[in-house]
Design a protein that fits this description.
Number of domains: 2
Shape: extended
Family: Belongs to the UPF0114 family.
Protein name: UPF0114 protein VK792_01260
Structural class: mainly alpha
Main location: membrane
Number of strands: 0
Strand content: under 5%
Helix content: over 70%
Largest sheet: none
Membrane topology: Multi-pass membrane protein
Subcellular location: Cell membrane
């Protein structure tokens, strides 16, 4: 019995394996998205800094929450960019520089999934908190009435429950592998 692979099968497998590089432009696109987030962050900062002496405590908190929201989105993008590239395209050969994040090269798909849902929950929570702080403001009440606020809470709870169920599934899967 010949255990060598058929040349057609070997060529197909090599082609499929090489096709992972089709994702590289997507990761480059995420780098452009990072630039977009940075520009929006700087624009928001430039808008609020000149007003800082006149801002009320509530408006200051809303401004800070907006900046935190953008930063969390950028953190999430960074995790997806690096972990996704290393898990699905190629290992990054950048050496052991002091700038290399500790988690790089160690976040597998399950870890990426948990970081993703945790970031989404944090971003959703900040967005919800911003809306709660705007209750009673005529301009915000015109956009976010009781119905919209209720849906924001429901959607946030769906994210939270999804995170809990994903963590439970990972825990059950790890427990089953140990047996």
């Amino acid at each position: 019995m010949d255990t060598r692979k058929n040349p057609l099968e070997n060529g197909l497998e090599r082609t499929l394996f090489a096709s992972r590089w089709l994702m590289a432009p997507m990761y480059l696109g995420l780098s452009v998205a990072m630039l977009m987030l940075t520009i929006v962050f700087l624009r928001e900062l430039a808008y609020y800094v000149p007003q800082m002496m006149e801002l009320t405590a509530e408006k200051t908190i809303l401004a800070v929450l907006t900046l935190i929201d953008l930063t969390l989105a950028a953190n999430l993008l960074t995790i997806v960019l690096f972990s996704g590239y290393e898990n699905f395209v190629s290992k990054m050969d950048i050496g052991d520089t002091v700038d290399r994040a500790d988690w790089m090269g160690t976040v597998d798909f399950a870890g990426l999934k948990m970081k993703l849902i945790a970031s989404i929950i944090a971003i959703s929570g900040i967005h919800l908190l911003k809306r709660f702080m705007e209750i009673g403001q005529a301009s915000a009440d015109a956009v976010f009435g009781d119905r919209e606020l209720m849906w924001l809470v429901v959607i946030h709870m769906v994210f939270v429950l999804s995170g809990v169920f994903m963590a439970l599934m990972d825990w059950l899967s790890a427990k089953a592998k140990k047996k």
